[in-house]
Amino acid sequence: MLRVRLQRTGKRGQAYFRIIVAEHTKKPKGKVLELLGSYDPHKKELKVEKDRIEYWLSKGAQISPTVNNLLVNNKIWDRPKMASWKPKVKPVSKAPKAEAKTEKEAEVATEEGSASVVEQPPIEEQASAN
Known about the structure:
Low-confidence stretches: none
Oligomer: single chain
């Protein structure tokens, strides 16, 4: 499957991007079918060939969410934005933390000796049990 996506160029800390068409299995810096434009994030400057992008999309190429959102933000076309990334959701569970606190409190209590007292049955029950 073909994909319209960004290819990073430039030095470390000075990124520039090319908008390319490439096979989705190829590495981003690998073989490119066509160069469709460029993006300078420092100057917020986007240069694209809209007709060539539409040509590749008509041939079945997929557009990456980042490139789509760049085109929408710069009013190159009127399509809806796509979700380009999803924040990681950390599982929040209060029950295990509460149990861990009670276990820690129990350990502290046994170290202090307050929980180490074992209740013994009254002497009368001990005699009848024998």
